[in-house]
Design goal:
Structural class: alpha+beta
Largest sheet: 10 strands, mixed
Distance between the termini: 36 Å
CATH architecture of the largest domain: 2-Layer Sandwich
CATH topology of the largest domain: Pseudouridine synthase
Radius of gyration: 22 Å
CATH superfamily of the largest domain: Pseudouridine synthase
CATH class of the largest domain: Alpha Beta
Shape: elongated
Number of domains: 2
Strand content: 15-25%
Length: about 300
Amino acid sequence: MSNTSKIGHNTSGTSGSRRKHEGDFSKFIKKEAPKARKPKVEKEKVVKAKSRPAPAADTTLKFNIDGSMRLNKYIAHSGVCSRRDADTLIQNGEIKVNGEVVTELGYKVLRSDKVSWKGKKLQAEKLQYVLLNKPKDFVTTTEDPLERRTVMELVAKACPERIYPVGRLDRPTTGLLLFTNDGDLAKKLTHPKHRVLKIYHVVLNKPLEKNDMLRIIEGFELEDGKINVDKLSYVEDVESRMEVGIQLHSGRNRIVRRIFEHLGYDVVRLDRVAFGGLTKKDLPRGHWRHLTLREIEFLKMI
């Protein structure tokens, strides 16, 4: 008996533990669902990413009343790493303050102090959180040795501070990508133990068979371990069943593509429509916006 469900139409014939896999992804994907019934080469032209207005969050860098800040916090606010990883750098003698190596945990610096790591000056800055709806054909990296276009071009005018992508999306993959210089939050959102929710809209080269859908729901072994999917559904109003919505918490490399490739399907198009509670609502492809204070606080509670 089938446990699969089509969005807006329940085809489940079982109950119990499998029911958790039923899901309605229509609110995430129906607005930008590509028409897969007549595949064609997509020529997506992006000149410059444009901002979308959003209430500004006060993320001003705050020192203590005496003008000091813990060194590990200062390093994290420079975007290099999280505070915990900063402690490791300090203990290993990799951090210098005013030219002198500092290994003391809890050490405090002043605004006027010069902090460096590997000969590079670090500058604690106002924390920034920028959400991009990534177009295809952009590489998720800060620099590309092959001189391909990178996602950094798209957010170049978002803020004066240097921000970094949280995780990555493959070059052909589109959708939500977060940028920040908050090292603590970046580590939290990419660490497997925090199980950050992700939802993808997947367009396949052929209809997804119900038996294969059940195999995905039940889970199977890949070369780097078993896959666990939270929800999987056919996309509403697509009779070909070549489009599905999939929800999972895994951040493993190319996990969605590898799931379907393992079963003999090619992923024609892959779009991340939700990330950690953030969605693409009012954010067109190639545009970015700043997170609201409420969104930032929600991510920090994950």
